[in-house]
Amino acid sequence: MLGYVGVAGFDIVITQEGDCYVLDLNFRLNGSSVVLLLRDRIEEVYGDKANDPKASPYRDAQGYLSGLFLGDSREDVDHLNEQLILEGIGC
C-alpha cells in the first residue's frame, strides 16, 4: 500500500465567495479528533440537534479566526495580511 494511513486533520478556509483553501495538513490527532471519535455517542445523546445548526447554542456567535503570520520582514507580514483582507478574512 502506498501513501499515508491514519488520522489527519485539515485546516480549511472557505471565503465568502465559496472558494476553499487548504491552509494546513496535520497528520496526527488534533482538536477535532475527539469530536469525530465521539460522533456516534453525541448523536445518541443529542439526536438530530447534533446536526442542526439552528439548535446550537452558538448559532448567533461570530466566527473567529486566529493565527500567526511569519515572514522575513515586516513587509512580508503586511503583504500576507493584505491578502487575507482581500479574501475577506483578515483584519
Model description:
It is a single chain. With 91 residues, this protein is an alpha+beta fold. The protein folds into two domains: 1-60, no CATH class; 63-91, no CATH class. Helices cover 29% and strands 14% of the residues. It contains three helices and two strands; from the N terminus they run E-E-H-H-H. The chain has helices at 33-37, 39-46, 74-86, and strands at 9-14, 20-26. Strands 1-2 form a two-stranded antiparallel sheet. Strand 1 (9-14) and strand 2 form a beta hairpin. The protein is extended, with a radius of gyration of 18 Å. The model has no long low-confidence stretch (mean pLDDT 78). This is ATP-grasp domain-containing protein. It comes from Polycladomyces abyssicola.
Please describe the structure with a list of short key phrases separated by commas or semicolons.
14% strand, alpha+beta, two-stranded antiparallel ribbon, 29% helix, 91 residues
Main beta-sheet annotation: 2 strands, antiparallel
Give the integer mean of the pLDDT values.
78
| Overall tally of structural domains | 2
**In terms of per-residue confidence, which ranges show pLDDT below 50 for 5 or more consecutive residues?**
none
| 3D shape | extended
Whole-Å distance between the termini?
Answer: 44 Å
The helical percent reads: 25-40%
- Widest sheet, order of strands: 1-2
Structural class: alpha+beta
Topology:
Blueprint (H helix, E strand, L loop, with lengths): L8 E6 L5 E7 L6 H5 L1 H8 L27 H13 L5
Antiparallel strand pairs: 1-2
